[in-house]
Amino acid sequence: MKILISNDDGYQAPGIVALYEALKGLADVEVVAPEHNNSAKSNALTLHSPLYVHTASNGFRYVNGTPADCVHIALTGLLGYRPDLVVSGINNGANMGDDTIYSGTVGAAMEGYLFGIPAIAFSQTQKGWAHLDAAAQKAADLVSHLLPSLAQELDDGQERNSWLLNVNIPNLPVQDIRGFKVARLGRRHAAEQVIAQANPRGDTMYWIGGAGAAKDDAEGTDFHAALQGYATITPLQVDLTDHERLPYWAPTAAAMSAAPTVGDAVAAAGAPVVPS
Fold first, then answer.
1. What is the DSSP string of 138-175?
2. Distance (Å, rounded) from C-alpha 93 to C-alpha 26?
3. How confident is the model at residue 271 (pLDDT cuts 50, 70, 90)?
4. What angle do CA 191, 197, 200 make, to 5 degrees?
């Protein structure tokens, strides 16, 4: 079995080193990660400047790009093979609730999922790397549990069943983590106010404010389960369609299709129609 590891904190981050050490005994593992911290880059790809790959002294490969860049180029030529699993993390801080939309950690895993490869994003619920060894062990426990089914699919010649999991692990000693719990994403309040400061030249510069407090942390959410001491597992999907509201917007589309357009009105008035 072959595993590709990436992250958004950079190839030198303690989280990716711990994850590599925890997984290297389970499969053939390679690391392709950003050169620098790329937190909150989501699924961004670099399309208008070149990407370069270098190899660190420990064998990790690093890229001057985003987390999604790393996984994308790894899967489209750099590796020369198709990994059986893409794993991202371990992130320095939670990726729960609305965080998943912005998360580069989730973005790296999602890039693997978009290529039809099962993928997992691992994060610790608090910053600072406390009890990182425990988080790495729990990550290895989950991957170890999932690898046999992935191997069986290959042995049976089945079409790979791709999935995307978002996993958040409390910063606790391993004996205090109560296990894994499947949970839906919670919601946060709006982010804190932007921070405005003057630079040495007197120009105003802005820093994005911190994440808001949990808005929906009811039982069943990732916020609630993590506070109870569980490592949370949230299956994610890419389809952003609001399926329930498709019927709501259908009459609007029908009315707009039947209504005269601005171009029709101008033409009826005898004015020339300028093509857009």
1. HHHHHHHHHHHHHHHHHHTTPPP---EEEEEE-SS-GG
2. 25
3. low
4. 150
Residue 272 confidence (pLDDT): 54
pLDDT of residue 230: 97
| DSSP per-residue codes, 43-84 | T----SS---EEE-TTS-EEESS-HHHHHHHIIIIISSS--S
Backbone angles phi, psi at 184, to 5 degrees: -85, 165
pLDDT value for 53: 98
Q: What is the pLDDT of residue 23?
A: 98
Q: Dump pLDDT digits (tens) for 181-231.
A: 999 999 887 778 889 999 999 999 999 888 777 777 889 999 999 999 999
Residue entry with tokens 């389970």? 26
Distance separating alpha carbons of residues 37 and 41, to the nearest angstrom:
10
- The position carrying tokens 């952003």 is 240
Residue 262 has a pLDDT of 60
User: Which domains does the chain carry?
Assistant: 2-188+216-235 (3.40.1210.10)
Q: Is 132 helix (H, G, I), strand (E, B) or coil?
A: helix
Are 8 and 62 within 8 A, CB to CB? no
- Measured from the Cβ of residue 147, the count of other Cβ atoms closer than 10 Å reads 17
**CA dist., res. 46 & res. 68, Å (int):** 9
SS3 call for 179: coil
